[in-house]
Amino acid sequence: METKTRRTNDHPFGHPWEKVYGASGRKHGGSVVRLELEFGTREQKGIIAVDVDQVVADLHDTWLERYNKDYDDHVTVWDIVDWDITKFVKPECGNKIFDYLNDPTLYEDVIVIEGALAGVEHLKSCGYRVVYATSCHIGMHDAKWMWLVEEGFLPKANTQKDLISLSDKALVRADYLIDDRALHIHNFVRAGGEMGFLFDAPHNHANTDLFRVKSWADVVRYF
After folding, report:
1. Distance from the CA of 134 to the CA of which of 36, 176, 181, 187 falls in 20 to 30 A?
2. Which residues pair with 145 in a beta bridge?
């Protein structure tokens, strides 16, 4: 199966490592945990929770493409410099921009962020368990789950044990979190997570107090 990818755009926003945020700044942190699985007990380094949208799935390009077509606009990902996307669409659209996230066909056109699948496989090969922690609009959980399966992030036989649907990342019980929203990183670490990685996106460039990774190549270099 051929994996669809997008190329990471270059931009002049400085070095990928900005500031360390978390309980530990160690490059190879994470305590060894023991997981009781169906197949017995095995040791692994820890658990890494990975957001889906804009971390492994390039949702915004598809989302904005549909909006632009319907509203005769030309908004790009680079125009979205704040988490509140309603600031950057036409007034007649406003909050209706979120209606696109309820379309079960949305993920049919979403491509993989460059290096994401190889990066996740690297983390697994290093001994980490990777789980996907993502928020879903009503009726979209299965569409996102199937996208992860079809793109190779989850096996077809998986029973969703590595997919978590939630909006509050403080509830995630993992050692690390990779996410594109600063609020999620803050909440995760305050709740006891060891360290968070802010995955670079134009909407989070104003956040300078977090450990930033600009690409999956940066994630791989860290671990």
Report:
1. 36
2. none
Structural domain tally of the chain?
A: 2
pLDDT in tens, 79-100: 999 999 999 999 999 999 999 9
Percent of the chain topping pLDDT 70: 80
The three-state (H, E, C) secondary structure of 27-92, written as one string: CCCCCCEEEEECCEEEEECEEEEECCECCCECHHHHHHHHHHHHHCCCCCHHHCCCCCHHHHCCCC
Residue 67 phi, psi (nearest 5): -60, -50
Q: Is residue 52 domain-shared with residue 65, that is, in the same domain?
A: no
Q: Which of 194, 220, 196 is nearest to 209 (CA)?
A: 196
User: What was the pLDDT predicted at 30?
Assistant: 37
> Is residue 159 very low, low, confident or very high in pLDDT (cuts 50, 70, 90)?
low
Give the domain range for residue 69.
Answer: 59-108
DSSP assignment of 123-190 equals: HHHTTEEEEEEE---TT-HHHHHHHHHHTTSS-TT--STTEEE-S-GGG---SEEEES-HHHHHHHHH
83/130 same-domain check: no
